[in-house]
Design brief:
Order of helices and strands of chain B: EEEEEEEEEEE
CATH class of chain A: Mainly Beta
Number of strands of chain A: 11
Strand content of chain A: over 45%
CATH superfamily of chain B: Immunoglobulins
CATH architecture of chain B: Sandwich
Structural class of chain A: mainly beta
Largest interface: A-B, 23 and 27 residues
CATH architecture of chain A: Sandwich
Number of domains of chain A: 1
Number of domains of chain B: 1
Strand content of chain B: over 45%
Shape of chain A: globular
Distance between the termini of chain B: 33 Å
Distance between the termini of chain A: 41 Å
Shape of chain B: globular
Number of helices of chain B: 0
Largest sheet of chain B: 7 strands, mixed
Oligomer: heterodimer
């Protein structure tokens, strides 16, 4: 069974500093997704990573994928308050139907 | 519509009652998923539809849960004899296929009292 682990589960960030959050998964997968969730809201798609070495950037967020290490990282550059949210990593379970296994999320709070 | 729409947004029901949760996917998306998100957890897969058929229902926790999608668009998740442990946010997602991402609705927060 595919397991997805995210760490740290909670991270307090100072505005202006850089941070990295991690997503490990237990079995081979060819697709990994990052989603953002604000309190009481649904999931907003951030990135889709499809191949080993894939790197995608949007604003202050950059995601990368290492399929050999079964690891994805989400790097935050110069954190700002608006980035406070919970970030979920989701991995395609490989059943050919885009069924996803989610981690527990990285809850990020950015403080001044 | 522009996105995945779920109704109701909140539902409070008494233990033992029957509930129906509705999902209206993005127009043209043939794949539809139901996930359940408990407090402090990531979403967990329940069921997947490709068109009208439930292609993968292995995530349904027990036979009190059932879902339909009779015309290949709107789906209804049905829960019989609700229990307090069913309390969660039920998320619906639709997918255009291929390597695109799934788009999630706002969810239905179900509270069983």
């Amino acid at each position: 069974e595919l397991k997805v682990e995210q760490n740290p589960l909670f991270l307090s960030m100072q505005e202006g500093k850089n941070y990295t959050i991690y997503c490990n998964y237990s079995t081979t997968s060819d697709r990994l997704y990052w989603y953002r969730q604000d309190p009481g809201k649904s999931l907003e798609s951030l990135f889709v990573l499809l191949s080993n070495g894939a790197v995608k950037q949007e604003g202050r967020l950059m995601a990368s994928l290492d399929t050999k290490a079964r690891l994805s990282t989400l790097h935050i550059t110069a954190a700002v308050h608006d980035l406070s949210a919970t970030y979920f990593c989701a991995v395609d379970m490989g059943y050919g139907n885009n069924r996803l296994a989610f981690g527990k999320g990285n809850q990020v709070v950015v403080i001044p | 519509g522009a996105g995945v729409s779920q109704t109701p947004s909140n539902k409070v029901t008494e233990k033992g009652k029957y509930v129906e949760l509705r999902c209206d996917p993005i127009s043209g998306h043939t794949a539809l998923y139901w996930y359940r998100q408990s407090l402090g957890q990531g979403p967990e897969f329940l069921i997947y539809f490709q068109g009208t058929g439930a292609a993968d229902d292995s995530g349904l926790p027990n036979d009190r849960f059932f879902a339909v999608r009779p015309e290949g668009s709107v789906s209804t998740l049905k829960i019989q004899r609700t229990e307090r442990g069913d309390s969660a946010v039920y998320l619906c997602a639709s997918h255009a296929g291929g390597s695109s991402e799934a788009f999630f609705g706002q969810g239905t927060r179900l509270t069983v009292v």
